Amino acid sequence: MGRLKQAQTAVLNGIIALALASLAACGGGGGSGSGGISSAPAAWVQGYFAPSSSFAAQCATLSENNFLRSWTNELYLWYSEVPDIDPAGYSSANYFALLKTSALTPSGMPKDRFHFTYPTAVWEQLSQSGVQLGYGAEWALIAATPPRKVVVAFTQTGSAAAAANIARGAQVLTVDGVDVASGDSVALNTGLFPTNAGDSHSFAILDPGAATSRTVTLQAQNVTSTPVQNVKALSTASGSVGYMLFNDHVATAESQLVDAIKQLAAAGVSDLVLDLRYNGGGYLEIASELAYMIAGPAKTTGRAFDRIQFNDKYPTTNPVTLQALTATPFHSIAQGFSVASGQALPTLNLASVYVLTSADTCSASEAIINGLRGIGVQVIQIGATTCGKPYGFYSQDNCGTTYFTIEFKGVNDMGFGDYTDGFSPQNTAGTTGVSVPGCAVADDFAHALGDPLEGRFAAALAYRSAGTCPAPTGLAPAALSRSTLRSLTNSVDLSSVDDALMKPPVRENRWYR
Amino acid sequence: MRATGKRLLAMALCALTACATTSAANEVPAIIVPSDGQSGMELQNAVAKALNRSSVSLADDALTHASTLAIEPARMRDPQGSIAPGRAQGREMRIPEIFRLVKSAHACVLIHERTGQRIELPNTKCAAKR
Prior knowledge:
The complex is a heterodimer.
Chain A: H1 2-25, H2 61-75, H3 92-98, E1 116-119, H4 120-123, E2 126-128, E3 131-134, E4 137-143, E5 149-155, H5 160-163, E6 171-175, E7 178-179, H6 185-192, E8 200-206, E9 214-219, E10 221-224, E11 228-236, E12 239-246, H7 253-266, E13 271-275, H8 284-295, H9 297-300, E14 304-309, E15 328-329, E16 352-357, H10 364-373, E17 378-383, E18 391-392, E19 396-398, E20 401-404, E21 408-411, E22 423-425, E23 434-436, E24 438-440, H11 455-466, H12 482-487, E25 500-501
Parallel strand pairs in A: 12-13, 13-16, 16-17, 17-24, 22-23
Antiparallel strand pairs in A: 1-20, 3-10, 4-5, 4-25, 5-6, 6-7, 6-8, 8-9, 11-12, 14-15, 14-21, 18-21, 19-20
Helix pairs in contact in A: 7-8, 8-10
Chain B: H1 2-16, E1 28-32, H2 37-50, E2 68-73, E3 97-103, E4 108-112, E5 118-120, E6 126-128
């Protein structure tokens, strides 16, 4: 896949180089950004960008830096906001870090928070859909720095954690005897994020409501996640309300979403509470399918779910695939991820949807919110501000490193995609993202997901019946910083906290310090 | 042209691998009957080989409940450590690879949908999926 893309990019760059060279030969094509292309410059010339293909796969540091500089100028969404810095004298990692905009969002956050690399060998790892090494427990970080606090957000059915009766809200006190609150971070990471199947580690667990802890030993295994859980229809005085927890846009989610919508349609639900609080994204096609299944054909036919926009050099063509830019429609048939391709999708035909969110609600999950809002489906948001990622990228391999720089933005049928600060329930305190009707409600680890008494689900039901919110709880993203987390203590009330899911070090930086 | 090319590619791949020759008419969707670790290893090797990788992470119960297997990029997160990074890729632009297990008259055969490659699993027990 990487080689194919590299070849396509090389072809494109060749075409661009040829066109520019032709212009130069005719005495045209002047200007600071597109000088002669016949050969790479021996030294940095400000504003001169040779094609990235002329530096590709040449792994001396300066060549790699030149590659990154030219590639950024070609494909970065905000290329005109990147300072042109002499690539000599920098390591490639340090130079790449400079190749992005320094602009801020309206809330004061960096506009580009998604600029990173992976070793190519790590990035190209493949796994069965939904399979991850671990214990089947998602750790939630309540306090990142001493005194730290870690609780369980949810567990996977059939996993080691589930077999040990570890439930949402359980607090991890020690790992292999090391105190979570203040112990050695390396030891904690080793136990919480095993790297080999069969590794065993012991945990002191304080179950919700328990006065004393217990010790369990968990053995790491490849765990198959269930991305769609707790599907149910709840009877109320004003009709049946559907609920589903949707955690991940993986291939296996397609069939589970179809089954869930069929179940809810059969139950005759008149409203849906879609729990996306731990859903960080994935296949946009699956997001489109779900949006269609919620809204139905009348509202979606002929409308765009999402339309991607590259920088102004590519108004009509995808510069990576070289295909014409076309919108992602609301898919009315299965795309073949785990349901036979072409199979008609069931629908609920709803005019509104309640969405439960957190700072972990990201990317394709946010696209569901934006896509539905773009066709006039009312989205009522309960929870916390979403992550703010209307952007995407194709990975770029070079010299053993895979680089990620924002290349495109997704917009909805109305052309809107400016939610860099996320979506926020309208009564969120402090600086917020795009305001959406609904209620700011903190995560509630004292109740199970899907329990009508769980804080966010309960708020959705109350808003539906009375149109009112509880007093806002939770923290705006700007306040949910490490420094703020440091001030939290072990006595925090688990029925009203915000969290960030913890990821294995290979998936994310270590949180501990 | 493209379909012909795919067929030729599939035929070429079959010539290079241990492919089953039974016609599709005699095949039914199948699931693996768990016996020992040998079949799991055989499946893992077959998938990795089909995708030209040294290894692919599979669940211990892969293809024991369903007759299709989706392989996708391992899930990773934005390594910057920001508060809510979501998936590193965000919108996943790479498509999953789909495999189907079928039972023919004499063998369990894994079919890679994208290429049409057929890989016989001689040490794997399988049964028709009901």
